[in-house]
Model the fold of this input.
Amino acid sequence: MSDARFESLGSGRFRVNGVLDVSTAADVLAQSVERFANVTRIDVDLGGVSDADSAGLALLIEWLRRAREKSQQIFFANVPAQINALAKISEVDELLNPAEAAKA
Done:
């Protein structure tokens, strides 16, 4: 069984550890809803993610969608290579890494 932990670090900063896959992404999304509610800037560190699949990418895209709806800014740090590769194949990589897209 996969396990993921979603931690609040305070001041709109969050960290995800463990596996982001089909068995954990929905739970991480559910945990994030209340924690993201009252912040205008959201910083999510994904450096602790040990493995991820397309459900992990879908989670990040869903966070982007929800943040846009609520006029929040969301930024991702240390996006795992697996998610970056899936994002590139899906042609959504500039959504996850807007600074990198601006350099291209």
